[in-house]
Amino acid sequence: MNRRAAFQIVDTFEEALCEYTGSSYAVAVDSCTNALHLALLYEFRLGVGDKPTVSLPAHNYVGVYHAARNAGWNVEWVDVRWEGHYTIPPTRVVDAAKDFHGGCYQPGSLYCVSFQAAKRLPIGRGGAILHDNPAFDTWARRARFDGRGEGEDYKNPTFTQPGFHCYLTPDAAARGLWLLTYLEDDDQGNWTEYPNLREFL
Question: What backbone torsions phi and psi does residue 112 show, to the nearest 5 degrees?
């Protein structure tokens, strides 16, 4: 069996994420923490900024700190009263774990979102990097698959870069796609979305 065929649902989920958020590309991974790690690692390798230090809000989830440190950055704490999302200077990385909604993508950014069970698209575990950078897209797709191309034969892989084991599985992507089709920004519900049952019953 062609193993790549099983991952086509991941491609479809990524396309749906782009349509929903307004991004050009989406790279689905197994958590927002790993999305941040890959995005920050890419920026670190580019040598962004005049020193290898990122600024993080002091009130934060500890995984963001570890993602930055594991990517090679030093961390300085800043007092920022962020809401929904925040940028991680001097990089283009945005931690938007709690800010996933229609049209949320910010052009030019590496916008990292979460699909953890308590988030707006509760797959259970998962995340994505929304972006508009073709070079990053090529790099990140290989990085999430152990540094090899998607669907390559285990016996004859082509390793072109360091890799990590953090791809989104097809079953998680299928659940995400299913839930995304029902996700509406104004989802409080009211009588107008239902038929007049008096006419039918």
Answer: -95, 125
